[in-house]
Structure formats: structure tokens, C-alpha cells
Amino acid sequence: MVVKVIPLCLLYWLLISTWWLMVSTSGMVLIPLTHSLSKTQFTTPHHLLKTTSTRSATRFRHHLHHRHKQVSVPLSPGSDYTLSFTLGSPSSSTISLYLDTGSDLVWLPCSPFECILCESKTPPLSPPLNLSSSATAVPCKSSACSAAHSSLHSSDLCAIARCPLDSIEMSECNSFPCPPFYYAYGDGSLIGRLYKDSLTLPNSLSVQNFTFGCSHTTLGEPVGVAGFGFGRLSLPAQLSSVSPQLGNRFSYCLVSHSFDSNRVRRPSPLILGRYEDKESQFGNELVEFVYTGMLSNPKHPYFYSVGLEGISVGNRNIPAPENLKRVDRRGSGGMVVDSGTTFTMLPASLYDSVATEFDHRVGRFYKRANTVEESTGLSPCYFYNKVDAAKVPAITLHFAGNGSSVVLPRKNYFYEFIDGGDGVREKRNVGCLMLMNGGDEEELSGGPGATLGNYQQQGFEVVYDLEKRKVGFARRKCSSLWDSLKN
């Protein structure tokens, strides 16, 4: 008997191929999202939480202090959920990138590729791309070039590309490629060039002349980003040129994980072309969506900003500051719904009120774990008894609009783990509030007032309706949703 051994690369390709499914009955495209963060990268829960809380804070605050005016500066790329697709024709390469609703560009590492100061970062999810023979450089006169350079006028771009003066004056700069663009993130940056090639989604759904950034050198950014924010270069925007239905509405449902790698072996579904009413029937499950309107942000147009009216801790409603209910002309305010930030960030006044009320209700029963707070960056934390866990109050987010409140599952805002057991300290159950202080309102001037992180989005299907400009939330069993849509 001959036993054939399947190479790991072929096995990976087969798994990805079986995951790429078109749900033809409803005109939707289903794509798996893979969670990239596991406990194996960290020595202790303290290390994991400190790293994640620091990254969330850095991502949230970076754009407030950025001084480069010529580029749209997205939030730092997401580091939790990835998706895959293929680029190129006739030869194609499978690319895995971070999903980021907080940025508006698809960019990826290209061969030859060098990442400076990447020793401690997640390694590339797929090999650097070798541009196919069908890839073409985007000309400097293109509107896509202007979009990558924050709407810099084409004549300026032609000058940067060193077009002859007569070509600039005659607007005949099509033979000169778009100049390199510079993007800066919370903890890294990159220089890239724009190219066009064919992008293929499940069931051979292709987007011809798809525009993407190709980077040969980055600083602290080893993995590329699939931008899903507003903007003509985002993946949904370019997909809408082929199918408006697929590009104008999408959703994802993040499988609950609590940083347990065993819980994320099942993919989280990303659904392109998601069209549902307020109530939807899936088998025996009646799903009700809660919607809130998107706010326009003149300074950060690629953000999905919504209004937050307040947060309830138990039965006490804590009103949000006025800047979270709207966005002003300077781009200040609102809450960004972001797939790439892990923990929810709140302005100091609201965070302090929520944390104080939470401590008032929980602190009377459990002892504060001050040393855990110092080592994780989260607060308040408690040594608590799992048997009496009912004393942890419910937390509800009240978004703008009638009936637009979302009750968070406890595991979405109260992280439980074992502290000690290292031979020095005894084992004790610890729980931490997983909302973070984003800074004083004055510090947040010129940018979002708050961010709804992906940890708080677990176990919800989050719908982005770009046509009707609204965001929806519905409690779901995300792994079951994957199975129901796949079959």
C-alpha cells in the first residue's frame, strides 16, 4: 500500500479553498476571518493583557498627534483578525491581511521585503507578494493616486513624479507612476507604491484593475492591511464597482475567545452583501438587529463613527459627554466602531464615572487587585469568588437613536483569569474591567472621542450599511452562523 503525504502548504491551500464559499441563494460572499492572537505568544496573562492594552491605547491616540498633512492617516493596523484572497493573473498568490475598518487602503508586503524593528512582531501571514505579469503601476494622474496622497492635486503629484513641465501643463502624465506614499500607524510606518491587478474572492468573483499598495520597506509593520473603511481605495468601495450589493453592505461575527486559542479554531464569518431587515430568521433563531446612524467626520472620513448617548452600569445610566454624541467640523467626537482596536477606549470623564460605579457595586464584595492592575494596564481588577459572580453588574451601551441599546455579555467586559500559581503566589481568581481610559477630552480634540473595540464586539454580528449609513448589532452564536451560511 502506498501512503501519500500531503505537504503542509498544499493542506493549507485546501483548507483555504474549502473555506472560500459563495452563498448563491442570497447573493452573499462568505469569507473566513482567522484570529491571529493566541496565548502561546505570551508568558503570562499579565503579559498578554499589558501588551494588548498598550497596543489599544497606542492605536487610539496616535492620529491625534500626527503631523503629516499630506496623507490620510488611519489608526494603527488591526492585529487580531485576518482574511485571505488572491491577487494576480494568470499566476496568482494567496494573500492574508489584517481586517481593519479603521483605514481605507489595501496594502501588502512585496518581494523583496524588509521590515525594520520587526523582531518582536507577528511574522508575515503569507509570503511577500511577487507582482504578477498582469500588475501595472497606477499613473500619477489617476484619482486613485490622489486618494492615496490625501487628495493631493494631480498636477502636484505629477511634479513629485518628475513629469516634464509641458506634460504637467497639458495634463498628460499617464506614463509616469504614482509617487510613493507614506503611511504612519500607531507603532510603525511604511512606504509603498500603487499598483493595479485582478483580485479574486470566493467562487472566482473577480475585481479587475483592483488598486492596492505594494511596500518593500516598512518600520514595525510585517503584515499588510485590508482597509474596510470609507474611501475609494478600500476593499468594499472597489468591490462595489463590480457589485454594488456586495460593496455597499458587509458584516462580520467575531467568535468569542477570551484569548483562548482553542476557541478560535472555528472561523469568524465575514459576509459581503449582507441584506437583512431588523428581524431575521435563521433556522430556529430569531435575530433582531439594533441600528444606529453613522456620523460624517470631515477630518477622518474613513472612520465608521456613531453617536454614544451613555453607558449603564447595572440600573444606573451614565450620560456620555456631548462630544461622543456628534462630530464637529474639526473631526472631534463620536465613537469609532473599529475591528482593529482590541479594547474599547473612552474619554476620561466617562471612563472614570463608569469605573467608579462599577467599583461601587463590585468593590464592596471583592478585594481590589492593585498589583494586577499595575501589571496589566486594566482597572479596576478584583480577587473574586466565581461562585458569587452574580455581583458583577451588567453593562449596556446606549447608542444614538430610539431603541439602539446594546447589552454586552459579561465576558465581553469582565476578563477572568488565574493569578499566581508560580510557586511564589497562591492561585487566585482575578477579574478585570476591559474598558480603558482614552485620555482627557482636551487631549482627544481633533479626533474620535471613543473607540468600540473588537473585544466588546465578540458574539455580535456587526453590520455596516454604507448605503443607508448605519451600523447594526445583533447577538449571535458566530460559529453557528458560519455553519448555517456555509451549508
From TrEMBL:
Q: Name one GO biological process term.
A: proteolysis
Task: Give the Peptidase A1 domain ranges.
Answer: 81-474
* Keywords attached to this entry: Aspartyl protease, Glycoprotein, Hydrolase, Membrane, Protease, Transmembrane, Transmembrane helix
Q: Which InterPro entries does this UniProt record tie to the protein?
A: Aspartic_peptidase_AS, Pepsin-like_plant, PEPTIDASE_A1, Peptidase_aspartic_dom_sf, Plant_Aspart_Prot_A1, TAXi_C, TAXi_N
Which residue ranges run through the membrane? 12-33
Q: Per UniProt, what is one GO molecular function of this protein?
A: peptidase activity
Q: Name one Pfam family in it.
A: TAXi_C
Q: Which domain of life is it from?
A: Eukaryota
- Family statement: Belongs to the peptidase A1 family.
Q: What is this protein called?
A: Probable aspartyl protease At4g16563
Q: Which organism is it from?
A: Gossypium hirsutum
